[in-house]
Amino acid sequence: MSDDSLRDRIDTSKPHSARFWNYFVGGKDNYEVDREIGDQIKSIFPGLVDVAVTSRRFLGRAVRYLAVEQGVRQFLDVGTGLPTADNTHEVAQRVAPDARIVYVDNDPIVLAHANALLTSTPEGRTAYLDADLYDPEAVLKAAAGTLDLSRPVGLMILNTLGHVADYEQARELVRRLMAGLPSGSHLVISDSTATSEGMIAASEAYNASGAVPYYVRPVAEIAGFFDGLDLVEPGIVRVPEWRPDTSVPGDFGAGAVDAYCGVGRKP
């Protein structure tokens, strides 16, 4: 895709979830419109910044768990978002240099920055797919160009499923992705949740901004994504509570952030 056609797909007149999240985690790939809604939401609900930061740290802990304790060497990261520090491939290849990672997003903003996701170790490999969550079979077929789908894969879907308005459709998309992965694969999910009035108000303000809506869900619906899988301890918990790493400076212990997560193994 040419730079001109890519620019034509990028709308800078409305806030964008990837840029908005990038602003919250201290990145620089955002516009004034994203910072404006970000500051508005921080005034409504300052805790959303903690959701962004702790969710990113959960990604690191989950990837390290899969790579170190489960021996997973392949990751499929759907709904990648903008590159920041400690992307999935950086975390995985730090402990397993031969790890292979495929990133998936269909957003022109993310595509424009995709080269930052392709800095693989010589032993491993990374790839970026401009593909759509709503077509799981096409995602799996394209990912098979980099990953061996006969071997376990860590499927990462972080802060993405809230964009799917219909819960049953979101569950079906997850089910279809996992159906294409073998036994021993793991599902990793985190999403913001409707667990406080502040988070609900923040979600409503964001959705009223003209951005692509993001729907916060009850905790029970986050748990429903793992039906048929074996949940890894400690189960479905707030993101800072999933195996906090006391050896990492600044890593959060238990906290009341409005985001829940889980890791499940396919039998």
Compact description:
With 267 residues, the chain is α/β, with parallel strands linked by helices. It has helices at 3-9, 17-24, 32-44, 47-69, 88-95, 108-112, 136-143, 167-179, 197-207, 219-224; strands spanning 74-78, 100-105, 125-130, 154-158, 186-192, 230-231, 237-238, 259-265.
Word description of this protein:
It is a single chain. With 267 residues, this protein is of the alpha/beta class. 38% of the residues lie in helices and 15% in strands. The protein is built from 10 helices and 8 strands. It has helices at 3-9, 17-24, 32-44, 47-69, 88-95, 108-112, 136-143, 167-179, 197-207, 219-224, and strands at residues 74-78, 100-105, 125-130, 154-158, 186-192, 230-231, 237-238, 259-265. Helix 5 links the parallel strand 1 (74-78) and strand 2 (100-105). Helix 2 (17-24) packs across helix 3. It is globular and about 45 Å long. The termini are far apart.
Give the topology.
Elements: H1 3-9, H2 17-24, H3 32-44, H4 47-69, E1 74-78, H5 88-95, E2 100-105, H6 108-112, E3 125-130, H7 136-143, E4 154-158, H8 167-179, E5 186-192, H9 197-207, H10 219-224, E6 230-231, E7 237-238, E8 259-265
Parallel strand pairs: 1-2, 1-4, 2-3, 4-5
Antiparallel strand pairs: 5-8, 6-8, 7-8
